[in-house]
Amino acid sequence: MSITLAISKDIPVFQRLHTHKLAYPRGLILSFNYDIHWIHRHSYGCYLVFLVMRAIRYIKYQGIGMVFHGIAGFVVIFFSYRPFINYYGSIFLLYEASTPFLNFNWFMDKLGWTGSKLQLVNGIILISTFFIARIVVGFYMSYLLWIDIYAVKELIPLRYWIVYGTANVVTSFLNVYWFGLMLRSLRKRFPSKSKVPHKTT
């Protein structure tokens, strides 16, 4: 299910990355675009019905971080209807680009393919996609977001600074934390040859 949701959100976002600033006469912070609105409306349901409720239900297995992730995404999409950061809201949905590979990794564990070459290839793609989408692009777009917000700071209510500032910090921290967990998991599944004990006869 999460694979379907991730793909159904990210493909439209990729198709609209070329959207020119002229489509936002009031700038990227306060303008509204109906194409982007459709993506947000779809994602709103995903975060409310699937991610948040599922994270709360399985908090014992997924941890509190997934709950914070879902709530932060839900709040950001909810406030975009004002409109507010209509453009940037869709860009941050690219965080989900790594989700299909994360699910493939889980499937391989369940199928008994743990430690296989196929899982190694998938793991490398997963970590690379996660790093590019959530760390490189995520931090860069966060920087541009706050530059644009500061340019119209007189028009932004204090509650928006608090809500979006908190959501941005929480998701950025979680992305770095999860990236570290992925690296440790990959090392655990595929230890270097120097660490593998040799059989003695």
- The DSSP helix count reads 9
Radius of gyration: 19 Å
Give the low-pLDDT segments: none
Anisotropy-based shape: elongated
Number of domain units: 2
| Proportion in helices | over 70%
Structural class: mainly alpha
The biggest beta sheet is recorded as: none
Helix and strand sequence: HHHHHHHHH
Average of the residue pLDDT scores = 78
What is the CA-CA span between the terminal residues?
49 Å
- Please give the number of β-strands: 0
Amount of beta strand:
under 5%
Subcellular location: Membrane
Transmembrane segments: 63-81, 120-141, 161-183
GO cellular component, one term: endoplasmic reticulum
Pfam families: TRAM_LAG1_CLN8 (PF03798)
Which helices and strands, and how do they pair?
Layout: H1 2-15, H2 27-30, H3 34-57, H4 59-62, H5 64-79, H6 86-91, H7 99-110, H8 117-151, H9 158-189
Describe the structure.
The protein has 201 residues and is mainly alpha-helical. Helices cover 73% and strands 0% of the residues. It is built from 9 helices and no strands.
